[in-house]
Specification:
Length: about 425
């Protein structure tokens, strides 16, 4: 039950956040209700603890990091067809769904709108959403099924994303039958004194809770329930900005089913030992991803007897989960990581402050932090040029940009 205004004041006083109502009387009725709803939805104890965590001294990492086994998709030999046949059977039986994480805006690309609506410059002028949809539909035809598609938006871009799909008649999908939209979670941003920030609209300044919030969002929005109703047992989760993502891969599915694991991930070998990417490893004996900032030069350059990098399997956000695993991981929030960002805000006197240096804490969870909860997982190495063409930067960066993604896409599809 939502708290009334007096109850809200009481909880704000308890956590030292009374300033959130400073401008309450100047808001119109709609914004007053929105602000109260925001406050009612905040877990203040969690926020209090997250702020306290920013003040704690980082302990020296004593985790034991060791290499993890992987399979190379193109060195499976006779096992390839074996795994493929298992996966094909499951796909034909309608056991696979696809989830696309599409909560971001195309700001870094100079695009005004959700990133998924961005045109990477192909002759067809298809958006990222349409390129992904084309692949899903093509694969569905092969197996005589429609792969259910779940798209995670954000509060910021949900309305515009849904309108975009509506305008394009959902690219042949049917809303609420085989295409579904749900929003990712958000957490308040805080200043260095632990005060929650108020944005320019007079409401609490919220930021997306990171791709690690995907599990909790799928459960809270009843998407996993919907998946079960559709007969889904396996869920592929990928990002919207990889225009070569293969969401339907019978070999990956077959490996997961055959090996009895609940998580199977794709990797590409690092472009060079010092490429700034997270890589798969074992942390204290459990599957994990180690960030590039944690890897020593010695570890980065270490090779096995075949000259392969010991820590060379890049995590490319192409992951397959059993629905049971998603529900288990979504039962409780993952640990949050803190980032120090620049954020505009309204001060206690009602003035807009535009800082020129970082001033606010943002809290986000990482999807791969859940990997440590499973005893084992399968990792399938695939070819970068066939499955990984991300659009993260503008063309001036020269890497992971529209130009490189476009070239890889055209080469792969022989356009």
């Amino acid at each position: 039950m939502e708290r009334g205004l007096e109850d809200v004041k009481s909880i704000l006083k308890k956590y030292g956040q009374e300033h959130l109502l400073n401008n309450f009387d100047n808001l119109d009725e709609k914004h007053k209700n929105e602000l109260l709803e925001q406050i009612n939805n905040i877990d203040f104890e969690l926020i209090h603890n997250l702020y306290n965590s920013t003040k704690q001294k980082k302990e020296k990492n004593t985790d034991e990091i060791t290499p993890i086994d992987y399979l190379d998709k193109y060195k499976l030999n006779d096992k390839y067809k074996y795994y493929e046949s298992i996966g094909k059977k499951a796909i034909k039986e309608g056991k696979l769904a696809a989830v696309t994480m599409a909560g971001g805006q195309g700001t870094r690309l100079g695009h005004d709108g959700p990133k998924g609506t961005y045109d990477i410059g192909l002759d067809s002028h298809k958006s990222l959403f349409e390129l992904l949809c084309d692949n899903l539909k093509e694969e569905g035809k092969k197996y005589g099924v429609t792969i259910p598609w779940f798209i995670m938006t954000s509060r910021e871009n949900n309305e515009e994303t849904v309108s975009f799909f509506e305008k394009h008649k959902y690219f042949g999908y049917q809303k609420d039958k085989n295409i579904f939209f749900f929003q990712q979670g958000e957490l308040p941003m805080m200043d260095t004194e632990g005060k929650i920030l108020i944005g320019e609209d007079g409401l609490i300044k919220l930021a997306a809770d990171g791709h690690g919030g995907i599990y909790e969002s799928l459960v809270k929005t009843h998407m996993t329930k919907k998946m079960r109703e559709l007969g889904v047992e396996w869920v592929f989760i990928g990002g919207v900005d990889n225009c070569l993502v293969k969401m339907v891969d019978p070999v990956l599915m077959g490996i997961a089913i055959d090996k009895g694991v609940t998580v199977a991930c794709k990797s590409v070998v690092k472009a060079n030992p010092h490429e700034n990417v997270g890589v798969f490893c074992k942390r204290n004996g459990k599957p994990n991803v180690i960030e590039y900032s944690e890897i020593t030069d010695e570890m980065a350059e270490a090779t096995d007897e075949n000259g392969e990098l010991l820590y060379g399997e890049s995590h490319i956000l192409c992951n397959l989960f059993s629905i049971d695993a998603i529900e288990r991981m979504g039962a409780e929030p993952l640990p949050y990581h803190v980032a120090f960002k620049k954020a505009k805000y309204i001060d206690k006197d009602g003035n807009l402050v535009e800082p020129d240096s970082p001033n606010a804490y943002k809290f986000e969870a990482f999807l791969f932090d859940s990997f440590g909860e499973v005893d084992d997982m399968a990792i399938l190495r695939v070819k970068r040029e066939e499955e990984f063409a991300p659009v993260k930067n503008n063309d001036s960066a020269g890497v992971d940009c529209p130009k490189t993604a476009r070239e890889l896409y055209k080469k792969f599809y022989k356009l």
